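Case 311 in the screening queue. Each case pairs one protein sequence with one candidate compound; here the compound is acetoacetyl-coenzyme A. For every case the pipeline is the same: read the inputs, emit a complex structure as tokens, and attach any notable structural observations.

Predict complex for case 311.
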Amino acid sequence: QRLTTLRSPEKMAEIKCVGVVGAGQMGSGIAQLAATNGLDVWIMDADRDALSRATAAISSSVNRFVSKGLLSKARSLSMLCSCYFPIKFEAGDDAMRRLRLTSNLQDLRSADIIIEAILESEDIKKKLFKELDGIAKSSAILASNTSSISITRLASATQRPTQVIGMHFMNPPPIMKLVEIIRGADTSQETFIATKALAERFGKTTVCSQDYAGFIVNRILMPMINEAFHTLYTGVATKEDIDSGMKHGTNQPMGPLELADLIGLDVCLSIMKVLHQGLGDSKYAPCPLLVQYVDAGRLGRKRGVGVYDYR
Ligand code: CAA
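Case 311 output:
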């Protein structure tokens, strides 16, 4: 019955305006990439404090790129001048574009693609996708930055499953080279090509994954992080030695426990639960120590304490 109500696929418009929902670490990083690559951006978050924090994070990150000569000063100055609500870049340079902050989802109606970067909860994301489906242009792509939730199931909340896709950035998005692109069961080739082209415009390398729990990166990375928690939990070694061992022994930029703190322990736990449930193998069961840290509110860097204490 649902199939009869689906809209027929729309012709894709050229992507000029990007909407981002969620102004956390990932959302602000994605908005930064869009703005610094010449696109208009709306970043939406119900929490105005999160929008202010996003502004500060974007300004600081852009300054780091400018100080290395990787971004023009004019563009950076426009970013620096924009620390108020809403942000507006002044015209005067080809590179200048608008980055606007909003707490009203309706403002995303002009976006050609909307990238969702909210909490990792399937129910909350589905509710949002349903709402976005009613607001977004009929030609717009609805993308999710989910780290493991099924794109096919998110698409099922909309009447445009051919235009729903996973666009999974790595943390921190301005720095990390990869974007995983995940095709849902009904994602069209046109949607895939437009999304891949956008990621490449951001200077990213892309890989394409089918829609199975954890996709490529988290399917492999999260069990490693979970195993690092087991190694700590069972007293094999200290957290410092576990991280140092993996960092220097396998040439990783940071150890798995430090990385878990960067990603957020709550995010790691929710991905392990998705892997456990979606792949049905007990080897994916979250380590009790990871569960306990999350229960205790030790969520990682964003809370000032996780495996390590940053306070
Ligand atoms: N914006 C701009 N520049 C930034 C930045 C940001 N947000 N973050 C770091 N940098 C720059 C710094 O200025 C610095 O530049 P220089 O070397 O030129 O001075 C450089 O990046 C290194 O930064 P730091 O010195 O602060 O710290 P670091 O050397 O430890 O690097 C890191 C930080 C880039 C995060 C690095 O540790 C790293 O790559 N860690 C691994 C990150 C990772 O694996 N991410 C993927 C996680 S998995 C994921 O995200 C998927 C998921 O769904 C969970």
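Case 311 observations:
- The chain has two domains: 2-210, 219-302.
- The beta strands are 17-21, 40-44, 99-102, 113-116, 141-144, 164-169, 178-183, 205-210.
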